[in-house]
Each structure stands twice: as C-alpha cells, then as structure tokens.
Design goal:
Elements (H helix, E strand, L loop, with lengths): L1 H9 L7 H22 L1 H9 L19 E2 H6 L10 E4 L9 E4 L1 H17 L8 E8 L8 H8 L6 E11 L2 E4 L1 H12 L5 E5 L1 H13 L11 E5 L12 H12 L6 E7 L2 E6 L6 E2 L5 E5 L13 E6 L10 E11 L12 E7 L12 H7 L1
C-alpha cells in the first residue's frame, strides 16, 4: 500500500487540500519511515537514541515524534542507502559544507508530478515562447548544486526562445556576466516576447538597484514575470522587503506585483512551496511543517515562532522524512491569508546565526557596487 499511496499523494489534483490527502500522507510517511528504518543501520541507531521506532506512528499527531535531523547533520554524514540513483544534487554550502542528496528515477518522477501540478495551480504554464534571464548558474555537469538545476527546470513552464545566465562558466570557474545581462534585458524590452526573470532575490535586488542608479530602466513586454527563490543568508541587514522588491521590478522593468512569484525549498526537503496571490507559502499536500521551540525542540502551536521542521514522505533512499532547518518561522491558519487556499501557510522570519554565513550568491552586491 505504501508505494501506491505515495504515488497517489504525489499524483493528487488538489495540491492544497489537506483533508483530502491526510490519510494518504500518514500512510506514505509510515511506509517511508519503515523503509528507511529497515535499510539504514545508521538511521536506526540515531532514531533509537531518541526512543523512536516506526510502530509509534499511528496518527498524524504522532508524526511530530519522528526525530528531526538538522540539515547540518546531512552535511557531515552520508546516509546513502542504495545504488542505481538517478541524480545527485548538493546544497549551496553556506557553511563551507554541502549536503549530498541522491534521488532515484522514481523519486524524480514524483518531483516532476509535483512541479507540474503546482505550476498549473499557480498559473505558471504558458504556451507563449519567452526569453529567460536567469540570475544564477549556467548548468554544468561539474555543478551539482540543486539551485542550478531547479532554475533550469523552471524554464520548462513556457517554451524558451533563449536562456541568458548571470553566472557563466569560463575557464573552469563561474563569472558574473553583468554587462551582457543588462544588454539582453534592454534588447528584450524592444521585442514582443515576454521575459521571465529567474533566480535569487538578492541578485534581483542588486541588479535592479544598479539599473535604476544608471538610468537603464525599461518596460518588458506584457506577460513578463519573475520566479524567485533562495534567501539572503550573509546579506542579513542588506535585504529589502518583498514589497520594496516588487516596487523595483515595476519601476525598473515594468513587471507588476502579480507577476512576481516566489519559491521556498531546500536540498534536504524536495518539496516546492509557491507563493499565493497574497504572497504566502501555503503548505502543499506533499509536506507538513512543524514549528519547534528553539530551546526544547517541542512542537509549538500555530502562530508561535520557532525553528522550521519540514516533513515529507517523498524519498525512501535517505532519511529526509523530518528535517530541521536553520530557518525561523511561523505557521498561520489558511483562513488568515484570504486568498482562498485553505491549507496553512508558512512565514519565514529569518535564519539562525545568519551573520557570517556564506551564500550561493556570494559576491553579487560587491560586484554591483564596483560598477
């Protein structure tokens, strides 16, 4: 039943109907936990030290008893369970270390189902060809970072006329091609095809502020939009609000607020979170989010801030069922949003120990300041 239930869960046509998918989610989590428990002595020993075993999972409430593994633990320990893996990705390595996550072909198919379902729900698909301007890395077999792969996959939502990357691989290293980036934007503004800007909000902020400062504002064709994902990390103190970023997109490129879509996720938690019409990350059926007390790690009720604990049954090849991030957040009731989606939504407040962390978009601000 487990594998069948997992396929049903990721094949749902109602990605935010929590009640409809509740039994499937619990059954899938039970099966995944049993599978990892049986296959991984390392996980079994870790879980046992927390007095946890699969039989305790009888209700949805019991899911909070699964030991949450910090993302840093994946960076320091290899939990690989099997061979024949479809693809390996890594986290961005903000602390100088990376998580190496391997996904099977079956798991990749489920991710694709999820991306298609959520893309349709949020209106990201279009048959009209577009130009893509990607504020991130040019894809390379030498670059396993998950952010480079998800940015490329985001270009599948509409036919690509062109893809222009901010970070191009030259002589074995990535270089920021700022001048080419701006030229491409200005050229596209003279055409008739929409432009989709994809990438880090930090890069977008630095680029748009620079264009505004240099008087290089333009109006992109109707239908242009932005798909943004990733945090500010060591730019804490330099980040701007979502509202200010939306104003910049409108002032500099003519992209309206409703054309700005944001995403949240992690290499260690392969679930896609997309903003609704009101800019909130509603929790999809493929996941659950617990907020834990920073001192005791006990689950907190809705509305109280704490550490973000992400749960999903997606993969049985790694113990990603319950992952503790270094994000601080709050879970709000769905009705508190007003967009019509009934699923609860996650608000990210910041990061624990953000000061001093590196970032996958490191150097962006310094580059633009020098121009």
């Amino acid at each position: 039943m487990g594998n069948h239930t997992l396929r049903q869960l990721f094949g749902t046509k109602s990605p935010y109907n929590i009640e409809e998918n509740e039994a499937r989610f619990l059954a899938a989590m039970q099966e995944t936990v049993r599978a990892v428990w049986s296959a991984s002595p390392k996980y079994r020993a870790l879980a046992t030290s927390f007095s946890f075993a699969p039989p305790v999972l009888r209700t949805v409430k019991d899911l909070e008893r699964i030991p949450p593994i910090p993302t840093l633990y994946f960076k320091r320990n290899d939990f690989t369970l099997k061979h024949g893996i479809g693809v390996e990705v890594t986290s961005s390595g903000t602390s100088g270390q990376v998580s190496r996550i391997r996904y099977s072909a079956a798991e990749l198919r489920m991710m694709a189902q999820m991306a298609v379902c959520l893309g349709r729900f949020h209106g990201l698909f279009s048959t009209k060809p577009v130009h893509y301007l990607i504020l991130g890395y040019q894809p390379s077999i030498r670059n396993p970072m998950v952010i480079s792969k998800t940015a490329y996959l985001s270009t599948w939502y509409a036919p690509a006329l062109s893809r222009t990357y901010a970070l191009m691989r030259r002589e074995g290293e990535y270089r920021l091609e700022a001048a080419a980036l701006v030229r491409r934007l200005l050229r596209c503004s003279q055409g008739r095809h929409p432009v989709r800007v994809i990438g880090f909000p930090s890069y977008a902020s630095f680029l748009l502020k620079w264009m505004k400062k240099k008087g290089k504002c333009c109006r992109l064709p109707a239908g242009s939009c932005a798909l943004l994902g990733g945090g500010w990390k060591q730019f804490a103190g330099l980040e701007i609000s979502k509202e200010e970023l939306k104003e910049l997109f409108w002032e500099v490129l003519g992209i309206p607020a409703e054309g700005i879509h944001e995403f949240f996720g992690a290499a260690e938690h392969p679930v896609l979170y997309c903003t609704c019409a009101n800019g909130h990350f509603h929790i999809p059926a493929y996941a659950r989010v617990l907020i834990r007390d920073t001192a005791t790690l006990k689950p907190l009720p809705p509305g109280q801030p704490g550490l973000v604990n992400l749960l999903t049954p997606m993969t049985g090849s790694l113990p990603l069922m319950s992952v503790m991030t270094d994000d601080l957040g709050v879970v709000h009731p769905g009705k508190a949003c007003g967009c019509g989606i009934t699923a609860p939504w996650l608000e990210i407040l910041g990061r624990v120990g953000a000061a001093g962390l590196g970032t996958c978009s490191a150097g962006a601000q310094e580059y633009w300041n020098r121009q």
